[in-house]
Amino acid sequence: MSRRRRVYEGKAKILYEGPEPGTLVQHFKDDATAFNNKKHDTIDGKGVLNNRISEYLFTRLNDIGIPTHFVRRLNMREQLIREVEIVPVEVVVRNVAAGSLSTRLGIDEGTPLPRSIIEFCYKSDELNDPLVSEEHITAFGWATPQEIDDMMALALRINDFLTGLFLGIGIRLVDFKIEFGRLYENDMMRIVLADEISPDSCRLWDIKTDDKLDKDRFRRDMGGLMDAYREVARRLGILMENDRPEGSGPVLVK
Ligand code: UDP
Question: 178 C-alpha to center of ligand 1: Å?
Fold first, then answer.
């Protein structure tokens, strides 16, 4: 049996060579890391849930015309994606103060922001993904002004759509991180949504109780991470539960 070529291994995912040129297989691991790898654990089944949640969200985003790298889910842990050149900038969108923004600016966690705020971080583990400005991004050639415009416009559309989607299932989308890639087609290049969107990369709070349904449960040693991720999947209507047929859609919370 021939082994697949591993193209890249990150903290929570592995990328393998895909079945056709221009494709890759994105494999979701059970590893959880925080504080730039200083905290590490394996959480049984996390990769399976993130694969499904990310598949669901990317599909819904595709449906409203957001270009993404996602092609289709292959199995429990893997999805087929288009090969893109990742822009080395993490785009964070915030609706409510939390995490590093609260620490940096001294704003209490949970304070609604006057408007959605976009931040950029330079993707570098050695440097701890530092916050950077558009000036840094263009001066150092990480992305062009046009690409920054495209990423910001897409990020705001994604934020509006996901905020509404999560609100419908009783979840507040506090903030999230996304990544973009350059997709080359013939002589054309366009910016598409890449990587993943899952409770690993979002802050999701229950509307009524403010319960955290995201990776902060791991970062802050709160326990119950799998129950929280399962709850998100269940509310999205994608958990294979006996009482709800698979893919029967979001559960509206009244
Ligand atoms: N985030 C992420 N990967 C990172 C850093 C942040 O997915 O390497 C997400 C995080 O889950 C949160 C948002 O981006 O939803 C904002 O994170 P923040 O800057 O507050 O950083 P943190 O407090 O997680 O260090």
Answer: 10
pTM, full prediction: 0.94
Which CATH number applies to 85-206: 3.30.470.20, 3.40.50.1820, 3.90.228.20, 3.40.50.300? 3.30.470.20
4 near 16, Cβ under 8 Å?
yes
User: In the Cβ-directed half-sphere of 10, how many Cα atoms lie within 13 Å?
Assistant: 14
Question: How far apart (Å, rounded) are the C-alpha atoms in residues 9 and 120?
Answer: 23
> For the chain, what are the domain ranges?
6-84, 85-206
Tell me which fold the domain 6-84 belongs to. Phosphorylase Kinase; domain 1 (3.30.200)
Report CA(102)–ligand 1 centroid distance (Å): 12
Residue 174 alpha carbon, nearest atom of ligand 1: 15
Give Cα 61 distance to the centre of its chain: 12
Closest residue by CA, ligand 1 atom 6: 177
Query: Could you say which DSSP state residue 248 is in?
Result: -
One digit per residue, the tens of pLDDT, for the chain of length 254 reads 567 999 999 999 999 999 999 999 999 999 999 998 899 999 999 999 999 999 999 999 999 999 999 999 999 999 999 999 999 999 999 999 999 999 999 999 999 999 999 999 999 999 999 999 999 999 999 999 999 999 999 999 999 999 999 999 999 999 999 999 999 999 999 999 999 999 999 999 999 999 999 999 999 999 999 999 999 999 999 986 544 444 556 766 65
